Amino acid sequence: GLGNPNEYRTIFMTEKVKPPEGRTFAEMQEGNPLMKVLINRVEACVAAGRLKGDPRAIATMLWAVGHGTISLLITFPFYPFGDQQAFVKRMCDFTLSALATQDVPPLTETPANC
């Protein structure tokens, strides 16, 4: 995102108020292979005992922190975040440390197809 901020804005920061006509959430997730990779990595961390809880919920939280961090850096370039790469690393380290201390419950009672 930091290397191509305009592309990031177009792809990830365009308002989406409803799913595309005729597509289900499950179908949309099929078109999101990176989320599957992230969930698989989180599942490996849970299996190894590094994280506890629902892998999809943990992956979604990591996605939210990552997206939020990059979005802020792009949208507010003059805010004194310091070195951008160092700030991203600090946010990742902070988030992983916090998640490692908790048993993260599922986000909803309905399981997702992702």
Approximately how much beta-strand content do the residues carry? under 5%
Helical content class: 55-70%
Poorly predicted ranges:
none
- Strand segment tally: 2
* Biggest sheet, spatial arrangement of strands: 1-2
Kindly provide the radius of gyration, computed on alpha-carbon positions and rounded to a whole number of angstroms: 16 Å
User: Helical region count?
Assistant: 5
How many separate structural domains?
1
Order of helices and strands: HHHEHHE
Average pLDDT level: 84
Determine the structural class based on helices, strands and strand pairing.
Answer: mainly alpha
Shape: flat
Largest sheet: 2 strands, parallel
Distance between the termini: 24 Å
Structure description:
Helix 4 runs antiparallel to helix 5 (84-99). The longest helix has 21 residues, at 55-75. This protein has five helices and two strands; from the N terminus they run H-H-H-E-H-H-E. It is mainly alpha-helical and 114 residues long. The mean pLDDT is 84. Strands 1-2 form a two-stranded parallel sheet.
Task: For this entry, give a set of tags.
114 residues, mainly alpha, 2 strands
Topology at a glance:
Elements: H1 5-12, H2 25-30, H3 33-47, E1 52-53, H4 55-75, H5 84-99, E2 103-104
Parallel strand pairs: 1-2
Helix pairs in contact: 3-4, 4-5
Structure at a glance:
With 114 residues, the protein is mainly alpha-helical. The chain has helices at residues 5-12, 25-30, 33-47, 55-75, 84-99; strands spanning 52-53, 103-104. A two-stranded parallel ribbon has the order 1-2.
